[in-house]
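ingest -> validate -> predict -> emit
validate: passed (alphabet ok, no gaps, 320 aa)
predict: started
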Amino acid sequence: MFNRGSVSLLSDGASEGNASLFVKQVDTRSKGRYKCVVNNVTVTYVVAAVEAPIRTVSIDMNPSGLIQCSTKDVYPAPVVQWSTKPRLNPAFLQPITRMVPGGKGLFKVESVLQQNSSFDYTYECNITSKYGTHTRTASLQLQEINSSEGKDLVIPCKAPKKLQSFSLVWTFTTANKTTDILTYNSQTRKSRSFWDNAELEEDDALKGDVSLTLENPVVSDHSGIYTCTFSGAETQHLTQSRVVIASAKQEKGFIKYNLWMLGIVAGLIALLVLTLVIKRYRAKSKRKQERAQEDAEMQSMNPDKTSDEPQAIQPSSSHS
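emit:
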């Protein structure tokens, strides 16, 4: 239903036969079929569709490993589609999507997807209006990085090729607390760092490479989740990096552990080779014994025939 004063005829054109209706502050209640009757003769019906466009789409991964794509204040309920790069069979994705009506009949959309065990995939969420008038996209790339304490660390991040103009925010999350590291705007070409040991190369940033360089990272302060967020007019892209920094003691212990494990593996391999050699030698000796036994049995079954043959008679010599 309309409030009083929310609809009116366009007064300027009424005297000339223009009976167009002016609806103020359109909302979801404004949709429907309008009937116009002129002089009780001419009847015109107009069907009005109302749309609250998709303005922004956000994507993130929660601590439980679910990737969440969301938007709000949308009408009517949109269509949500997931994909990956490289491409995964849609049967392996199986997202769960909820569309909850909120204030003024507008929808809040949340779609969650279980992350694949591999860090080699980029997850893309597309939300399209029901009428197909526009689409907003959000994507999330996951990666894992291991480094050593005291060594400068570069965390890679590049803008999608189709994203020409963007604003960028680097954040750091640990113990469920998120802080800003650095911001950059591709239009103004200006960056601002909130950490003394964090920077990006502005010449590379002009080409879309906004990789973050950390000088002399410390285990307790710099191990955590680093998120590089690009925001454009119709898209959002995140590169999320899980960074593990090992201390010098941990690294030495890791090397010793690896050497110890390598020694065990080498010993097991040597033992296996020795066992195979012994088995082969025993098998060969057994075959020799079996052959010797077979020869002896054959000889017992076929005794020497020279004793059964008649002896040649020697002619006697005559003496004169």
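Residues 7-48 form one domain.
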